[in-house]
Amino acid sequence: MYRRRFVLFLAAAFLPSGVSAQVSNLEWCRALPRPEYEALERVTVSDPWFEVYKPAPGVFAIYEPHQAEEVISYLILGRKRALLFDTGMGISDIRKVTTELTKLQVVVLNSHTHNDHVGGNWQFDIIYGMDSDFTRQNARGSREDAQAEITPDQICGALPKGFDAKAYVTRPWKITAYVHDGDRFYLGGRVVEVIATPGHTPDAIALVDRSNQLLFTGDTYYPAPIWLYRPETDLDAYAASIRRLVALAPDVKLILGAHNIPVAQPSVLPRLVTAFAAVRAGKISPKPDSPGKVLYKVDGFSFLMRAPSSDRKP
Q: Which CATH number fits domain 2-224+237-281: 3.60.15.10, 3.30.1490.180, 3.40.50.150, 3.40.50.1820?
């Protein structure tokens, strides 16, 4: 309770000019700190924008709790190099955080290229990207999507000192090499494999670390409303991708998603498939959300989708 009050105090004191201090009215902000983090080992870093946890040996979850996406990037360590799975919002300096966590060379791979997962890409020399037009387009950067992330309803707590809200953009980055489904990254004593999971976006992927029984799901699964409404979303592809992840569930012991909470049990995946199938079969009534969107809730899952028209199914 004390920590939650502290977060709210910071929000009132440090939000950008023109941002309302009534952050206690933000539902997601009131939910912080999330109790699941109490069971995880926290690692101290110098930048208060980030919180870092160790959900598994050799894995750091780099969490950004002061922005509504609550995005989580993962630094996966081998003996010879490290893989950074996503680079977050780009609101603060994620590269500085990685240098505090490891002296290994860090290479970047994104779970997909929505702006909240590639914001720090420009800071790194080696960036792998899926071989897709969607990836190439997003590598050019954007301003509109970035600016939408710092509106008054999106911030809870202190923005980094010296942060220039008007200049905030998703900066362009250069793709060093392309990756494809089934490619493997050899980190030294640790191998992670790319699993293509299109649906949320055309370039969405998961990572599986078979030896350590870890599955990093990106935005294909996380314990909050899953965004399936954007123009690039393909619901048929998403349904096929989550079925593919279910096939991996017997061989993993921990699911690590890209938002809100970094750990879940593999049993969540078959339930996810069943829940989404119920939505698509018309068994779940949607509730209106923001304009043009509806929210389907079933068995603890939420899917934020385009409002259905009379001539098509979800």
A: 3.60.15.10
